[in-house]
Design a protein that fits this description.
By secondary structure, the chain is mainly beta. It has a single domain, classed as Beta Barrel (Maltoporin, Chain A). It is 6% helix and 46% strand. The chain is built from nine helices and 56 strands. The strands form 13 sheets. The chain has a 22-stranded antiparallel barrel. It has a five-stranded mixed beta sheet with strand order 3-8-9-6-7. The longest helix has 12 residues. It is globular, with a radius of gyration of 31 Å. The N terminus is likely disordered.
Length: 987
């Protein structure tokens, strides 16, 4: 029986017969699991995994259904080797930075993997708020994570995601797939005998803060001021105890020891009439945050028969995030329909409509208007309740309560008055016609659309630190992408040889327009409209259109179902390149050898041994409008601003060359599956801006230059450790490492690619790596001792140095699935090792004495501390440092903002990423009430974490306008720990 089953499956693979193996399911599970695995590859072409010469890793629907993330992509974190999903820690939408196999481009935004839904690429563009992460005191606004096109994808509608990691795997998709691709296949109707099936999913989850900074509540507000008796004291305003010390943001004041001082009295909005108990309020930051909640309900209806299939689903999600008065609502409607019109013609269509709306999403960044800023500046002796009235009596919407500094906005005003609203509508869909001329020839025509319409509103009240007379803004974003492609295919077999050939072309057009209206200053407080502007609203039109025409072909040769060779070629014509360089061609070759069949090695212990290899070269065009110089609209109506970047009318496409090789093993009746891959990627002719001397009239120019190499290893394994009738245990694991090296750089290039807050500089040097972080460090002796100056403070270096790298040396993940009768228990861990991140919040809280790490030395006589290190003598020798300084001065200088070394920390971590316990009711129990399936579950995400990173989360990145920059924490918001309940039923 087992041999006959294998023969039938091989025949099925060769396309000669199709068999129903339901009656032989046990034999299939025991002997040939994975042999007939089908994955979706470029252009939506379904291929058998054994024929592929590259890695195509498949993630099944249950990953997205069971973890219930607000953003589907985060469900895959730690589950695919070489895949990194990173957010900026900026709120509930969690826009994802999705990368595969490291960083290939000098420009941070050019490293994202392509997202393809049902064969149609998504634009996946992100429009930022136009503001930098560091903006305190600049009078500007703050970055806000308003999501992108990926947020519109409903996790419950995903059938599978195939991860194509290298350029070889995604060569047919062109330049956007140079960094790999995630191929999403959405669900379609799949039922037996035309039966109508209804599925209902409901989940409720609750969020709390995963990790807090280690705040100190032993000392209060102050700067070590002493009264006439020589004792430390505190006074809110001038009092009998001495001059005011209540205006500082520092916490180097007196120790909480039961004494009484004149303090702030919320009843009089000023100094208390009597001295009050000097005490800490240990819940004065944590108490601002609440338990967040997410409720999601989804219903789908599907049916199919031999000619027609359809599926329709509705999903509604309501999120109230952990920060008060923030969250969003999301509505999804999806429709899938396919019909075999004739024996030769099949028409199918998929359509999805999404709305995302929010009256307020949280702001991030180091700026007066973010709650992160308030958390940094809140002092241990200040009660959170004092801020709750928001407005001074009789001054509603006019003057806020912020008694300690006019630069620190009231946290409740930030939450309830500084509103960042969004109304977003997204339509995606495609229609496909498949015509089968005969058993060999077929034609596919497909047209896909992605339409985004978005309105954003920004409200800033009177008396806010950056807008004393208020501010109102309306942004309108239209982003439309059209993809039309045709594919003509041939399949044939001669004896032991098989051939499959496809040729086609595509037309892609993207049209983007953003308009921006700003009312700077409001005539009437609390009235948010453009007609209420003190100054004339300014319109900023910002188009960004692009057109690409392509032709491509694929040839697959097979011999005896044991040896396979793929050859692809593609030529693009891009509107973003000059006429002479607009056309560029790129090929790929891949092969796979089923060694276990070739050498007749198959047995119960060795079921599959596959060798694969591939080579690909991909051309990459540029962003729009980098060829000519353009004027832009200024803040003064009717005027323009000259460009500061000198564009390049002779740009060439970037080149990305990928080589990959690996082996796949399936052992012990397929209970152990191992995949090992080694790869190299070389990126050349990168399109980068380089600095120009100011006398040129420009700050930068755009050139082609630079060569970046990535090399890495990936290992993944799946083990069916225990298999029994009532108990089974499956283990999955992955590990990946990537080495990035800068091979060449252009002459005259200073190496600085970008910076965050003018403190952390991403700088490249030949032999270095992308992600190398530079900044000021401590001066040290040859044996590593800190050098101090004559003033008793650390000496300052003259120039920046390399501090570390933002990207880890390796990542790993481990998944466990247990089945005990009707119970299923699953949990996954993942972690990383080797990267660092700079923390702006750590700098500021340390400088102000807010963290426990600043407690040493406080009890010293006079509040003096001697830094551990040496001073340099006139003859160049070193002596121990003996100069004492005030602890406030010492910590303020040691952790100063520019000192990247003392404010950077390892981002190593291990996380219990998710866990789930589910119970499925026996079929015989639920059949009487008309149900086919009834499952209840409890699940959790980010339940536990080990890390030495001192703040909220080591998976840190900064939202700088629209760019997510790893390696820097700049006003990060807390990460959520989630616990939830889930109900799934089918009938």
């Amino acid at each position: 029986m087992r041999k006959e089953t294998q023969k039938l499956l091989v025949l099925s693979l060769l396309g000669f017969v199709s068999v129903n193996l339901a009656a032989q399911q046990k034999a299939k599970k025991d002997t040939v699991k994975g042999l007939d695995e089908v994955v979706v590859t470029a252009l939506g072409i379904k291929r058998h995994d054994r024929a592929l010469g590259y890695v195509a890793e498949k993630v099944e629907a249950k990953t997205f259904e069971e973890t219930q993330n607000n953003n589907w992509a985060q469900s895959m974190e730690g589950k695919v080797a070489g895949l990194k999903i990173q957010t900026a820690g900026a709120g509930p939408l969690g826009t994802s930075r999705i990368t595969l196999r490291g960083e290939k481009s000098i420009m941070m935004d050019h490293n994202y993997a392509l997202i393809v839904v049902d064969g149609v690429p998504m634009g996946n563009s992100t429009t930022g708020s136009g503001t930098a992460a560091y903006g305190a005191g600049s009078g500007g606004d703050v970055p806000i994570d308003l999501g992108n096109g990926l947020n519109s994808i409903n996790p419950d509608d995903i059938e599978s995601v195939t991860v194509l990691k290298g350029a070889s795997a995604a060569a047919l998709y062109g330049s956007r797939a140079a960094n790999g691709a995630l191929m999403i296949t959405t669900k379609s109707g799949k039922t037996k005998n035309g039966k109508l099936r209804v599925t209902f999913n409901s989940s409720s989850s609750f969020d709390s803060v995963l990790k807090w900074p280690d705040w100190q509540y032993e000392y209060g507000q102050g700067t070590l001021a002493t009264n006439t008796a020589g004792n430390f004291y505190y006074s809110y305003g001038l009092s009998a105890d001495g001059p005011s010390t209540g205006g500082t943001s520092s916490a180097f004041g007196p120790k909480f020891a039961g004494q009484y001082y004149f303090q702030y009295d919320p009843n009089v909005l000023g100094q208390s009439k009597e001295r009050q108990l000097w005490r800490p309020y240990e819940n004065n930051i944590k108490g601002f945050w609440r338990t967040g909640s997410t409720y999601s309900n989804s219903i789908s209806v599907e049916s199919s028969n031999d000619k027609t299939s359809f599926r329709s689903s509705l999903t509604y999600l309501n999120n109230e995030w952990m920060m008060p008065n923030t969250g969003f609502d999301r509505f999804n409607f999806a429709l899938s329909f396919a019909h075999q019109l004739t024996k030769k013609l099949k028409i199918s269509t998929k359509f999805a409509y999404n709305t995302t709306s929010s009256d307020n999403l949280p702001a991030t960044g180091y700026n007066n208007q973010s709650i992160s800023y308030f958390m940094i500046f809140q002092n241990p002796n200040v009660d959170l309740e004092w801020y709750k009235p928001i407005w001074k009596p009789g001054q509603e919407q006019v003057d806020q309560i912020h008694p300690f500094s006019s630069f620190i906005d009231n946290p409740y005003m930030i939450a309830y008055e500084m509103l960042n609203g969004v109304r977003k509508k997204t339509i995606t869909g495609n229609i496909t016609a498949d015509y089968q001329f005969n058993k060999n020839f077929s034609l596919m025509l497909r047209s896909g659309i992605e339409i985004l319409n978005e309105k954003r509103t920004t409200k800033r009240p009177w008396s806010s630190a950056n807008y004393l007379k208020g501010f109102y803004r309306e942004q309108f974003i239209k982003n439309q992408e059209y993809n039309n492609d045709v594919l003509f295919s041939y399949k044939g077999d001669w004896n032991k040889f098989s051939i499959s050939a496809s040729a086609g072309g595509s037309i892609r057009y993207n049209e983007y327009l953003m308009t921006d209206y700003q009312a700077i200053g409001l005539k009437t407080a609390g009235e948010y409209s453009l007609t209420n502007a003190l100054s004339i609203p300014v319109k900023y039109p910002a188009p960004r259109d692009k057109h690409v025409d392509s032709v491509y072909g694929l040839l697959t040769l097979g011999y005896d179902n044991k040896i396979f060779v793929d050859v692809t070629g593609r030529n693009d014509w891009s509107s973003t390149l000059p006429k002479q360089n607009r056309s560029f061609f790129y090929p790929s070759v891949s092969t796979s050898f089923i060694l276990s069949d070739i050498f007749n090695l198959k047995s119960n212990n060795l079921n599959l041994w596959k060798l694969r290899a591939s080579w690909a070269k991909v051309g990459i065009d540029s962003d729009p409008y980098l060829l000519d110089n353009y004027y832009t609209a200024s803040n003064i109506t009717g005027s323009v601003v000259a460009p500061t970047t000198f564009n390049n009318p002779s740009l060439k496409p970037e080149k990305n060359t990928n080589i990959e090789a690996g082996m796949d093993f399936s052992l012990f009746k397929n209970r152990l599956n191992i995949n090992l891959t080694a790869y190299q990627n070389m990126s050349e002719n990168q399109i980068i801006p380089v600095s120009l001397p100011s006398e040129s009239g420009y700050s930068k120019r755009v050139i082609n230059a630079g060569k970046i190499r990535n090399r890495g290893l990936e290992l993944s394994a799946d083990i069916l450790a225990v298999k029994g009738e009532n108990f089974s245990w499956k283990v999955g694991g992955n590990w990946s490492t990537n080495e990035n090296r800068v091979m060449t750089l252009p002459e005259g290039f200073d190496g600085i690619v970008s910076n965050v807050g003018d403190v952390v500089f991403y700088k490249m040097e030949v032999g270095g790596s992308l992600g190398d972080m530079y900044g000021f460090k401590l001066l040290r002796t040859p044996d590593g001792k800190v050098i101090y100056g004559d003033n008793g403070l650390p000496a300052r270096p003259a120039d920046i140095e390399k501090v570390g790298n933002a990207f880890p040396k390796w990542r790993a993940g481990l998944q466990n699935d247990f089945k005990i009768k009707n119970f299923t228990i699953s949990f996954s861990f993942d972690g990383q090792y080797g990267g660092i991140a700079y923390s702006q919040s750590h700098h500021k809280m340390s400088e102000q004495g807010k963290l426990k790490s600043t407690l040493p030395g406080r009890d010293n006589p006079g509040g003096m501390i001697v830094g551990d290190g040496v001073v340099q003598n006139p003859d160049g020798s070193f002596s121990p440092n003996i100069k004492g300084v005030l602890v406030s001065s010492y910590y303020g200088d040691y952790y100063r903002r520019a000192n990247v070394e003392t404010n950077s920390f390892s981002t190593d971590f291990i996380k219990l990423r998710d866990a789930r316990i589910a119970y499925s009711f026996p079929k015989e129990t639920i059949k009487s009430i008309g149900l086919d399936d009834l499952t209840i579950a409890i699940f959790g995400k980010n339940l536990w974490m080990w890390t030495k990173f001192p703040l909220f989360d080591p998976e840190v990145a900064t939202l700088d306008n629209a760019t997510i920059t790893p390696g820097v924490e700049m006003g990060q918001l807390p990460t959520a720990r989630t616990v939830g309940f889930q109900l799934n039923l089918k009938f």
